[in-house]
Design brief:
35% of the residues lie in helices and 22% in strands. The chain has 144 residues and is an alpha+beta fold. It comes from Succiniclasticum ruminis.
């Protein structure tokens, strides 16, 4: 069963208010419905904890939201409150708005990276960067 979640709405609103990178969501009047599902969800044999989906334009006449953020409860049963907040922040970062055309267009922002855990564990997250950028990152890390 799918139902609205005040808990996730409060978390989302707090994150939008407090994280500078997300404040634009409120400023642009983007409407998000926070949903809770009692179903498990998997895709390509991977557990889906939550997902952000854009409301299709053809339904905009009957739906007052621009995006849905759905949390799959069975898949987060062991999450801490901190992990739930991180999950909601992750989903909020998928909210996109393109204002370059005549009309604003909503879209789902893709992930910055796509990689296998084994590659990250073995070679690091930045394995594909050019050497000069890796060196710059190392220099920055030693200064802090």
């Amino acid at each position: 069963m799918l139902e609205r979640s005040q808990k996730y709405k409060k978390i989302g609103q707090r994150l939008i208010r407090n994280i500078p990178d997300l404040k634009w969501i409120r400023e642009m009047g983007i409407r998000i419905a926070y949903l809770s599902s009692d179903e498990e969800k998997k895709k390509n044999k991977r557990i889906i904890h939550a997902e952000c989906t854009k409301v299709d334009e053809k339904y905009s006449w009957c739906c007052r939201y621009d995006f849905f953020i759905t949390v799959y409860e069975p898949n987060i049963m062991d999450f801490t409150e901190e992990q739930i907040e991180i999950l909601i922040e992750h989903e909020l970062r998928h909210v996109g708005l393109d204002v370059s055309g005549k009309e604003p267009k909503y879209y789902i922002v893709p992930h910055d990276i796509e990689e296998f855990w084994d590659i990250i564990d073995k070679y690091g997250l930045h394995w594909s960067e050019p050497e000069w950028l890796k060196e710059k990152r190392r220099t920055k890390d030693t200064k802090t």
